[in-house]
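I trust your eye. Have a critical look at both lines of this record:
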Amino acid sequence: MPATHEEILQKVQATLVEALGVDEEDVVPDASLRADLGAESIDFLDIMFRLERSFGIRIPRGELFSENFATDPELAADGKLTAKGIEELKAKMPDAKLDDFIADPQIDKIMDLYTVDMLVKYIASKVN
């Protein structure tokens, strides 16, 4: 039987509370992992491993959290995504709210786009 959205949300919330040491009431669907919950670069790897363990899935490197934008000259220049980079970001993060980001596509702000709800949708696509 497929996991419900609510079941996945609860497990994701528990994972983030454990990984980031945040309060459960702060882990709401639209909370940004970095901006709202204080996740740092190293935390994203920990979150990925914990999600794999919690849900019994395998998350290929770079699939959930994009890594190649800053290093690929076709995707980024002068600290910002190129038009091709923005298109690739849209493809990799179809559930992200990108309007504000596209107005000023700074690479160092990509991690602010990851929300609790995006994790839930990603996990749902893997387990159902």
